[in-house]
């Protein structure tokens, strides 16, 4: 039974483990053949910045893991446009191509179209 | 209806796991099915058998155990999160040469696949985090 | 279908409520619990937006034991509905999914 699942990732990487553990969950979900999409919102968009040198703080690089998402068959990756604007980051500065930008109403609609939400 | 809960917060330090527990109690009293409670991130701390809160304070670890026992619940702790935070069952303690193990009775250690399965089979999956 | 949003952080210190309010659509529901119940105070950040959503038919709930525990029962803005855990369970069934904001 395949459900439409959206993982909502709203926390910055490295300061706490939430972002990393959310990605691990996304990868596990796709390994088990579920239809999973990811929405990056609020500080979650910081996971997508280029030039992360996480080895300097002895952590695995989140950006490297995220670039593997398409290899796991995770194709629908959304970013909340206002979260980018608030942080003066442009979508073309981010590490992934093919990101889908959503406004507030789009996000609300996206949430309501899912079968399950994974809140991180 | 079939419910599963995801608990991401430690007991005592935040109220989230207590809220999850109260939600579980309510849904079971209403006759719904609680398919699984999956403990991930700091939520794994709900499963330690070493917690010794004062007698006049609420013992959430024990409350989860009693609830699991009376309703035959599946309380699952994520192995990756547990190992990182020092929650081990007997097998993992031996594997990693640790002096002891501390997984409380009534909980089992497994992988993230169990949370995926819970999402796949449940009508509702609710997350409780900090 | 609609979404039930749960918020457990105080709007005076966290952006959880304000982020939630940006993306709520008609027929969604909002539940304040744990420290999120500080959002029932009429002067709280987000209180005005909550009232606007209420006027559009979105229901805003607060967990009564969390409200009472924090001494807030007499301090609530109008039209916030106090509920218990039994009603919380039912709310999750009235909506398709639950998005938890923390």
The fold-level CATH name of chain C is Hypothetical Protein Ychn, Chain: A
Number of domains of chain C: 1
Number of helices of chain B: 5
Structural class of chain C: alpha/beta
Number of domains of chain B: 1
**Major sheet of chain B, described briefly?**
5 strands, parallel
Return Rg of chain C in Å. Answer: 12 Å
Task: Give the C-alpha Rg of chain B.
Answer: 14 Å
CATH superfamily of chain B: DsrEFH-like
The major pleated sheet of chain C works out as: 5 strands, parallel
Beta-sheet strand percentage of chain C?
A: 15-25%
**How are the strands of the largest sheet of chain C arranged?**
4-3-2-1-5
Summarize the structure.
The complex is a heterotrimer of chains A (120), B (130) and C (102). With 120 residues, chain A is α/β, with parallel strands linked by helices. Chain A has helices at 18-31, 62-66, 81-86, 104-112; strands spanning 4-9, 35-40, 77-80, 100-102, 116-119.
Tell me about this structure.
The complex is a heterotrimer of chains A (120), B (130) and C (102). Chain A is of the alpha/beta class and 120 residues long. Chain A has one domain (4-119): 3-Layer(aba) Sandwich (Hypothetical Protein Ychn, Chain: A). In chain A, 28% of the residues lie in helices and 19% in strands. In chain A, strand 1, helix 1 (18-31) and strand 2 (35-40) form a beta-alpha-beta unit. The longest helix of chain A has 14 residues, at 18-31. The mean pLDDT of chain A is 96. Chain B is built from five helices and five strands; from the N terminus they run E-H-E-H-E-H-H-E-H-E. Chain B has helices spanning 16-29, 60-71, 79-85, 90-95, 113-121, and strands at residues 2-7, 33-39, 75-78, 107-110, 124-128. Chain B is 37% helix and 20% strand. Chain B has one domain (2-128): Hypothetical Protein Ychn, Chain: A (3-Layer(aba) Sandwich). The model of chain B has no long low-confidence stretch (mean pLDDT 98). With 130 residues, chain B is α/β, with parallel strands linked by helices. In chain B, strand 1 (2-7), helix 1 (16-29) and strand 2 (33-39) form a beta-alpha-beta unit. Chain C has a five-stranded parallel sheet with strand order 4-3-2-1-5. Chain C has four helices and five strands, in the order E-H-E-H-E-H-E-H-E. In chain C, helix 2 links the parallel strand 2 (29-32) and strand 3 (59-63). Chain C has helices at 16-23, 47-55, 64-69, 85-94, and strands at 3-7, 29-32, 59-63, 81-83, 97-101. Chain C has 102 residues and is α/β, with parallel strands linked by helices. Chain C has a single domain (3-101), classed as 3-Layer(aba) Sandwich (Hypothetical Protein Ychn, Chain: A). The radius of gyration of chain C is 12 Å and the shape is globular. Chains in contact: A-B, A-C, B-C. Chain B binds chain C through residues 1, 3, 14-16, 19, 22-23, 25-27, 29-30, 32, 123-130, and chain C through 6, 8, 33-35, 63, 66, 84-86, 88-89, 92-93, 97-98, 100, 102.
């Amino acid at each position: 039974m395949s459900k439409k699942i959206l993982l909502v990732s709203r926390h910055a990487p490295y300061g706490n483990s939430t972002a990393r553990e959310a990605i691990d969950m996304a990868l596990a979900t796709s390994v088990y053949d579920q239809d999973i999409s990811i929405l990056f919102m609020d500080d979650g968009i910081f996971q997508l910045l280029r030039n992360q040198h996480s080895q300097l703080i002895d952590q695995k690089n989140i950006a490297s893991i995220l670039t593997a998402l398409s290899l796991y068959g995770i194709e629908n990756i959304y970013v909340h446009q206002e979260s980018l604007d608030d942080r003066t980051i442009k979508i073309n500065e981010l590490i992934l191509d093919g990101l889908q930008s959503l406004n507030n109403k789009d996000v609300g609609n996206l949430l309501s179209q899912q079968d399950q939400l994974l809140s991180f | 209806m079939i419910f599963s809960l995801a608990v991401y917060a430690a007991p005592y330090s935040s109220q989230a796991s207590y809220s999850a527990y109260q939600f579980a109690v309510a849904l079971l009293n209403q006759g719904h099915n609680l398919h699984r409670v999956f403990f991930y991130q700091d939520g794994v701390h709900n499963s330690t058998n070493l917690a010794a809160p004062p007698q006049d304070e609420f013992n959430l670890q024990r409350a989860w155990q009693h609830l699991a026992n009376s309703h035959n619940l599946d309380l699952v702790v994520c192995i990756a999160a547990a190992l990182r935070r020092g929650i081990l069952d007997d097998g993992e303690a031996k594997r990693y040469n640790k002096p002891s193990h501390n997984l409380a009775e009534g909980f089992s250690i497994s992988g993230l696949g169990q949370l995926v399965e819970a999402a796949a089979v449940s009508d509702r999956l609710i997350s409780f985090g900090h | 279908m609609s979404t039930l949003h749960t918020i457990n952080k105080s709007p005076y210190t966290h952006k959880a409520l304000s982020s939630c309010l940006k993306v709520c659509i008609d027929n969604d529901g909002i539940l304040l619990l744990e420290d999120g119940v500080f959002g029932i105070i009429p002067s709280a950040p987000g209180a005005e937006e909550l009232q606007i959503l209420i006027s559009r038919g979105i229901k805003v709930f607060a967990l009564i034991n969390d409200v009472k525990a924090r001494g807030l029962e007499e301090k609530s803005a109008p039209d916030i509905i106090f509920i218990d855990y039994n009603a919380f369970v039912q709310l999750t069934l009235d909506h398709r999914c639950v998005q938890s904001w923390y």
